[in-house]
Write a structure and sequence with these properties.
mainly alpha; 23 helices
Length: 450
């Protein structure tokens, strides 16, 4: 219960923050999620369970607090599942029961409290990551139970398959769950694990075929492949992986819209990084039994980032919410190492654990405060990405909605200077000057009522 309590403590103050960024398009402005009937009429479609969760939220009201409360509860459940799964994993690898419990608890608290998780929790549209993670972790839990309970193994395995389907129906990146199940059970006989995995591996291909049968998924795949070449994307993502790893270490560097560069020409640094990540992956596979904790930490991190940060190009090179599940591996590796290093001093262990959690908690509270209004959100984003025309344009829109027209014009001008070919800021500037910018309550602004 401690990880769940940590989540509630850190995220409760942010419940009443405003909608942000994609929230307006996928939740507020999308009629397909405004009722169960509308959701049903829109099927078949992409991410059906995610959209169903939004439709169910709308039944209870359209205020952001209700949507965000669901996100917080999902994160609390996920943190509890992380503790349970890592506790069993540690005992399987031969850790003493007390050490396995302590390492699992610390890792779950790191998962719960790290500020990088705010993008999957406080940012309502980040639910795609946390809800898919919920089904993945439930699938792992069912898989773990199927290995421990011989009499009901088939039932637990069937439940795992259902969780897998639900996870993919929430977010496509959950497609790698069977590989995560293998990694979790890498201490078991390979033949036995592969035999149990066979129905899930078959499901991987069935689910992929079902996705490709939908025109929307085919369009997204074609658009992705046309974005940049495979080589360019691998070079770009070699740097993005390093950036994401750094996000776990830099506690005050949350960035909602990082302007990471696309590597269009091979360079020594990018090639070296790409080779380095391959070496880490191969070394992890070779050491999966000899150094299971280290191997699990590295491979788990790379596995959950593979769908978004390897072969398939994305317009946004990387986002913090991609770390939601990926950070579990490094968090557990750090926790096991800390428990072992302080084995002779409980006081020293408690000191370092408490210090780390306090720093994480303060950083998360600070990060959550940024979501308070659209102005605070985009002011932070624009400050962290001074060369981003999109951030400047969106900050201008936030100022305009708040009737701060001079500030809005200044940001539109800055966006135009940063990216002269982008027509969005030019159109917004013209519409603002003409008094026709959508989203602005002109009567309220004219009356001076805040």
């Amino acid at each position: 219960m401690l990880p769940a309590a940590c989540v509630l403590l850190l995220y409760w103050p942010a419940l009443h923050a405003s909608f942000q960024f994609d929230d307006w398009n996928v939740i507020v402005g999308d009629p397909r999620v405004h009722s169960l009937a509308a959701w049903w009429d829109s099927m078949p479609g992409i991410r059906p369970l995610l959209k169903l969760s939004y439709a169910l939220n709308h039944l209870a009201g359209s205020e952001p607090a209700g949507f965000r409360l669901v996100n917080v509860l999902i994160h609390a459940i996920n943190a509890t599942l992380v503790f349970q799964l890592l506790r069993v994993k540690g005992r399987r690898l031969g850790l003493l029961p007390d050490r396995a419990w302590q390492a699992a608890l610390l890792a779950a608290l790191l998962f719960a409290a790290h500020p990088v998780q705010t993008e999957a929790v406080t940012y309502i549209s980040g639910r795609s990551s946390s809800l898919a993670a919920l089904f993945c972790l439930l699938g792992l839990f069912c898989w773990m139970r199927s290995e421990e309970r011989a009499t009901s193994s088939a039932s637990w395995l069937m439940a795992c398959c259902l969780c897998f389907a639900a996870a993919v129906a929430t977010k496509e990146t959950a497609w790698v769950l069977p590989l995560a199940l293998w990694l979790y059970s890498a201490d078991r006989p390979v033949r036995e694990t592969l035999r149990k995995l066979s129905p899930l591996i078959a499901m991987m291909f069935v689910l992929a075929a079902l996705a490709l049968s939908l025109s929307k998924y085919r369009y997204l795949l074609e658009f992705s492949l046309a974005t940049r070449s495979l080589v360019d994307n691998l070079l770009t993502q070699s740097r993005a992986l390093l950036y994401l790893l750094g996000q776990l270490l830099r506690l005050n560097s949350g960035n909602a819209d990082p302007a990471l560069p696309v590597i269009a020409e091979p360079d020594v640094a990018s090639i070296g990084l790409m080779i380095g990540w391959v070496v880490v992956c191969v070394a992890g596979l070779l050491c999966v039994r000899r150094k299971p904790v280290t191997a699990f930490a590295a491979l788990w991190f790379l596995l959950w980032l593979a769908p978004t940060n390897s072969l398939l190009p994305r317009l946004d090179v990387a986002n913090d919410r991609q770390l939601y599940l990926a950070m579990i591996g490094p968090a557990w590796g750090l926790s096991v190492g800390l428990i072992a290093w302080t084995a002779r001093s409980t006081a020293l262990r408690n000191f370092f654990a408490a210090l780390l959690l306090v720093l994480l908690g303060l950083a998360t509270l600070q990060r959550n405060a940024i979501y308070d209004t659209e102005i605070t959100f985009w002011q932070d984003t624009a400050a962290r990405n001074p060369s981003s025309a999109r951030a400047a344009n969106n900050l201008g829109m936030a100022y305009a909605v708040a009737c701060r027209f001079d500030d809005a014009l200044a940001e539109f001008e800055r966006a135009i200077a940063l990216e002269p070919q982008d027509s969005r800021a030019r159109i917004n500037r013209r519409l603002l000057r003409e008094g026709q910018l959508p989203g602005v309550d002109w009567d309220r602004c004219a009356s001076g009522v805040d």
